[in-house]
Write a structure and sequence with these properties.
Blueprint: H1 3-13, H2 18-29, H3 31-41, H4 48-60, H5 65-85
């Protein structure tokens, strides 16, 4: 593989898309994004992580590729660690051993 192709692939892999980061932040702030989170978890979603992603992306634009690569790898591992500690949307459901009594209700 030639050096220019490898450099091009590294630029794509170890770079962030500013437009995508901005879109993700705006989507988080919209009513639709909040409604989905409220339905799944029963609370309003904090968009702080999306804002942090946008700021991180802005900071990377001026960095050389080797520093970008290091920073992105560190951030990805940190995000994976945090994600493993978060609760799942499945945590709100309780598994039943037997069906509900009188369900569906008899409506005259």
């Amino acid at each position: 593989m030639s050096d220019t192709i490898k450099d091009s692939e590294d630029d794509k892999k170890y770079n962030c898309n500013l437009v995508q980061a901005f879109d993700q932040y705006i989507l988080c702030c919209t009513i639709g994004g909040q409604a989905i989170n409220y339905y799944r978890y029963g609370e309003r979603k904090s968009c702080k992580s999306k804002w942090e992603d946008l700021k991180f992306c802005l900071q990377l634009k001026s960095k050389p590729i080797d520093i970008r690569k290091k920073l992105i790898l560190e951030r990805e591992s940190l995000k994976e660690e945090q994600k493993s500690k978060e609760r799942s949307s499945l945590d709100v459901w309780e598994i039943r051993d037997k069906p509900l009594q009188n369900f569906p209700p008899n409506i005259p």
